[in-house]
Amino acid sequence: MFDTPSRHLVDVDAIRLVVTDLAAFTPREGRGQLQRVFTVLLEPLRRLLAIERLVAAAEDCDDRARRQLTRYLITGFGDDSRRDRETEKRSRVKDRRSSDAMAGLTLLGDRELTEMTSALASFSLEFGEDAVAGAMDSVLSLIGGSRVIEAIVAAHRLGGAEVVVQQLRGGEMPGMPGELQDLIGGLNFGTGGRDLSEFDFELPDFGIPHDDRDWLDDFFDPLGNPFGDVGWRDPDEWEPTPPWWIYPRLQEDIPPGLASLIACIMTVAKLVTARAAIAPPTLGPNARYGMVWADQITSIDPTAHCPEDLLSIYGTGLAALRDTAVLVLPTASGCRAVSVQTRNWTDTRIRVTLPTDVVSGPVGFADKAYVAAYNAWHEDQERRLEEIRSYRCAAFAAGATVSTPFSVCAPNLGRNYLTAGTAIIDSFRVDGRARVVVTPGSSVTLTWSARNCSAVEVTRVSAVGPAFPGSVTAVGSPIGSITLGPFGASGPQDASYSLRAAGPCGAVAATVVVAVRKTPRLSVAGVELTQGIQAFGPLSAPNTASPLVANKDTIARVYVTHDLDSYLVDGTHAVSVSGRLRVNGVAVAPLNVAQALPSVGWINRGTTDHTLNFRIPAGIANGTAVIGVTVWTAAEFEQPPDGELLRPSRTSTSSATWTTRRALRLRYVRVSAPGAPALSDAACRDIVVRAHDLLPAPPTDIAPARMPTWHTSYDPTTSDGKQTVLDHLDDQHDCTLSEAIFPWEDDCPPGDGAIWVGILPVSGGGLAQSHRVFAPGRNTLVAQADRITVAHEIGHTQKLNHVNPGVSCGAGGPDGDYDSLPAGGMISAADAFDTNAGASLAVSGGPLYDMMTYACNRWISRSNWQRLFDKLS
Amino acid sequence: MTETTFLRFTGLIHDDGSFEPGVGWTTTRIRTPLEPNSQHIVEVIDEGDQVLEATAATITVSDDPAAAGRLVARLVAYLPLPDSGHTVRLRHGDEIVHTVDLAPRSPFIGQPELEFREDQILIRWDADHDRALSFNVFISGRRPSTYTLASGLTATELRVDVETLPVDGECTVAVLATDGLRSAHAVSAPLELPHRPPRLTILAPSEGQEISPDSPITLLGTGSFPSGEDLSERSATWSVDEVVVGRGSWIQVSEPLEPGEHTVTVSSDSHGGVSASVAIRVRERSDDEQSWARIAAELDPDPHAGVTAA
């Protein structure tokens, strides 16, 4: 849609969003005026884009662009006659404090603006300081002018089109000149809120050629084609006169420090140009032998190879050179002049200690005066560069090249060639890096460049990674490359390769690393919602098995898979994952760190950590809710090629429905017996609450009974004692013994509609009225302090009979009548989940049976969950 | 018209035919007439072995396995108890299963004395009989409802916590003294118990519960009067660290609490104001959880905040 030279200098998308929204607010007859207003408001940005494009083209030696830019620099981008002199003064202040210069600019890109300004400054220096100042003022004016559209976009971000319209109507936009207010005052926004697509309008005719392009495209053409379609922009029709963006009021809105930054850039550009204008010295007319030579040398000592070795250079007429020449020796950074003591410089021999960075190369002489002059020039360049770098905006100082001291070598005459120094490895790279990250199956290229050696050795030093044909070592020339691959795919590998280069005085080595990495892509294969027991069949249809009860803690088990297949992370197929769940927007943290596995088939529901588990609290577990889950890997994974760390994530959304079921009205009685004090109120309450971990009912109607404690003199560990306690409690509850002892006992205790739960202070199981023929009321039970026993007895009160799977935990089996359940009441352990503990109930000690059995390991089965669910409707 | 005194005769019949006597008593009212269903006959006979009264017993059979595999049946019979009654006999057909002599006269029991001490009531009574007695203690409030405080006592006093009583305001205490057959009862003078406010109970979170950071929590509670009636859930106000977060029997605090100690309180202004509190602790984030929070903020920003009332 846009063909702008830069998509970054101006945030076009933000402006487009505003215009689109405002257009929807504007009736057809008002859109022409809206278009005109925005074209005017966008003019400063259009001009900034024009400058950016021209500067870029000028740097690429586009003569047409250079001419246009030159013309604008001479005439000004704004209006020279209206230039704000205060701004000009401000621009010339040398200010090195330019931090936060861009504060407040949201539509203009920081980096792009400063780069464009720097390039403009460099270009304008050709026309003198006035041109630089003029260019700077123009840029500042345009930035100031952009503050109006900045304010509009900010208002839109704040409150949408309505706020923009409100502010435009009220003339509240900061920095709005009177002329613009007049222009905007004519806007007709109508009542607003209509969809742009409703309108079948024609392009308004303001003397602008009509074409078939999209209306919004046309609207933004000033941005997209700054210097194209000039007929589209008729200044008489479209621009207020004079250009409104240089008004002082607008300039006051320029962000603090921006003028200083631009001034800094201008100054640095000037310093760079001045430095570049100083050329290195030329060889003087008195240089008898030229810049470098070696004619007087007849031989050199072949035994000196290493730093600190004493090198003897033999020749004839050497003494005559002592005052006008300097000795130059080959070093790693070129041939450098070295000082020689007078006594070591005779007519036939020069003796010199080899410097630490000596390398092989020709030994010779250089003109002493020229070397001195060149090095003085170099020092001056260094000083100037140091000054440039002292500016905080020096990062924008393009063209400030680094100079070096004198480093020209004498010609190689053979007899003056020194063989010395260690080898130098200038580079050893794998795919251009010292360490590269690749995916399994990839190949890489090793490249190297060494000096001061005749050959190099490349060796695979790690145990993993491709080797060379027939060997882990290959020999090559000092400059070369080799391709290796493919790299293994079984897991993360770090393959190391070293380059060894041997020179006349020792060897050096460098190493590169190829890190083989694979990043998992995560998938949310499904979400299982369980309140204790659940089947999880088709992944596309969770919640179709055991129904969910409203206002009851729910565990969401998120099934996460990855695509690593046989690639092993940390030696296993599992990838540790975490995540966050949202239930209608409420965020929930996970209970565990889970293992993402290669496929659903790998997931064992009996293993808690094979799913990422969340506890949805009872308060938000109701109605129909949107379940959103975002999962991510616990670890970050290195990405090719440079090892940037990435944490893969995946978001998935589903829904869930909780069905309202009545709460069991439970009232607990703390029973004490001889030698066995009653449990605390909190302990008894907690046991009754926890019994709901097995029941399809919300634990919302639990309280102490009106007779909160009961002391019995019977032994509740015996069957008869338990029965007696049960009878007594029931007598308190609803007088089932029914003997009228006293005249006032015509009324039994008022019915409370509750089930009384006597919590025994000792072990011994429980007893309920459901199948106890002595007590047909079915609303009282006693049980040891154990959630499963309590749930079992509550089951009896809801007319659940025992289930007889043929197993029992201890002597005796359950009494009948029996209920018949699938699989004899055996439960798939993978289906059972303890919502309180947040863990699977897969029991290692044996199979799991329904809570209405007498088995050792009990939980509620799906069958009885469904039966109770139906009973509690 | 003279009231008839009935004897409540009860016990257990085991599968070997033996009889285990239970605790019976005399009464002038039978609330629920029994439906005799067995060939077990209970007889009251005089000193001359003449049968004065006889009735078939009601038997209910239990196959409770907890009774160590025995077949057990409970036997209950009501029959008039004439003054000349001397012996009670249980007969199954021609077989005399059980015989027990009645005491010559009913037990004596004096009016219970009630002493209110701090949060307890001390109930004391005098009793006399030529056989061992056991006592059942009852309390009755303003409304004609009677609750048993204790049964099978052998001592002649009982302490009860006022807090545990199902009644408040004016109440009376009755004591039944029985030797297993003959009984007597006495009723105390009225006692004014302090009126007790409804009781609030916090079901979730539990006292001392440690909560993971970044977890939304549900506050859940109930309220009831000493008589067992419910308190209106509308009167419940929830607060966390004294900042009100909602009203109702439950609320969802969707914004996770900051790590540290917190006090969750539910209160009601009714009946002079009551409240209940639990202390909970939100755990500090572990290093892993801090890492989780940082990643979550990056990958899944905009956490929900706020409180949803029920």
Describe the 3D structure.
With 873 residues, chain A is α+β, with helices and mostly antiparallel strands. Chain A is built from 18 helices and 39 strands. In chain A, helix 13 (258-276) packs antiparallel against helix 14 and helix 15 (681-691) packs across helix 17 (787-797). The longest helix of chain A has 24 residues, at 147-170. With 310 residues, chain B is mostly beta strands. In chain B, 4% of the residues lie in helices and 50% in strands. Chain B has 1 helix and 28 strands. Chains A and B meet through strand 20, strand 21, helix 15, strand 29 and helix 16 of A and strand 6, strand 15, strand 20, strand 22 and strand 25 of B.
Widest beta sheet: strand line-up of chain A = 11-17-16-13-14
- Structural class of chain B, by secondary structure, is mainly beta
Helix percentage range of chain B = under 10%
Work out the number of β strands of chain B. 28
N-to-C SSE string of chain B, H for helix and E for strand? EEEEEEEEEEEEEEEEEEEEEEEEEEEHE
> How many helices of chain A does DSSP assign?
18
Helical/strand content category of chain A:
alpha+beta
Radius of gyration of chain A (Å) = 44 Å
| Quaternary form | heterodimer
Dominant shape of chain B = elongated
Major interchain interface with per-chain residue totals = A-B, 75 and 78 residues
Task: Please give the alpha-carbon distance between the first and last residues of chain A.
Answer: 60 Å
Low-confidence parts of chain A lasting 5 or more residues at pLDDT below 50?
1-7, 77-104, 188-251, 538-543, 736-747, 771-776
Largest sheet properties of chain B = 5 strands, antiparallel
Silhouette of chain A: elongated
End-to-end C-alpha gap of chain B: 61 Å
- In what range is the share of β-strand residues of chain A? 15-25%
Indicate the percent of residues in helices of chain A.
25-40%
How many β strands of chain A by DSSP? 39
Number of helices of chain B: 1
Tell me about the biggest sheet of chain A? 5 strands, mixed
